[in-house]
Amino acid sequence: MSERKILTGITADAFVSDADKWALDKLKSLPLVPQLVSKFYEVGIDRWLYCYNMSSSIRCGPNQYPTLYNIMRESCKVMDMPEPELYVSNNPFPNAFAGGVERPYVTLRSSMIDTMTDEELYFIMGHELGHIKSNHVLYRSVGYLLFPLLELLGRRSMGFSDIATYALYLAFFEWSRQSEFSCDRAGMLVSQDMSDSIQSLIKLAAGPSRLSHELNQDAFMDQARAYQDADSLDKLGKVVLFATLGKTLTHPMPVHRTQELERWVQSGAYERIINGDYARVAS
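Above: the chain's sequence. Below: its structure in token form.
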């Protein structure tokens, strides 16, 4: 594509959704959260996670996966943010994640690289940079690691009631899903191409396949609209299924996620940001 526009001085407020902010405020307001964050720093878990990632992945640089390194550098330039460390890990399931509160990093799985074109990887990179720029990494790390730790140690051993812990679970997963919508917007701001961005989400939903060349973007978007426009009985079914199966998902359903990105672009918000109308760092 033509040279990407640089979003000088852009802040996370430019793309973080109101629902994301509301869910995070709700999570922070729970009495257990300050204790969990304190334990996270007290024990040094951030350093553990950083060392584990570094020991099991390949760090990218000018002489190591320079294609990926340059995609990351250009993406950071677009989002006007410091460059995190970039890693590649060996994993057959396409995914990527951001980590490191004190030393931020992005890790791409090898299958993600095989699944995506270079242009589609800009969306993925922008999405992960969005997590870093929005300061999502702390609360995501706390939730993903300390929740299993609570189960291992026994909730009552840390003074947490079952009801309080369950409320924390629900609040965390609700915020986690909302944060993904915000970071899809960041991915779009870096990609600056709607087709490439949607194709990235479609490939994440479909996974790697020898028939990936047969994926049809228009058909998928028709599917997304049909899901959204379901009749009242199906809508009730979606509510019931979410209450029983979906409330602890960390990511929104792929169809819903793709349509939300399309709606955000169609609202004109994306175009306004690209044209320079966005929240900036105070001068």
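The chain is about 65% helix and 5% strand.
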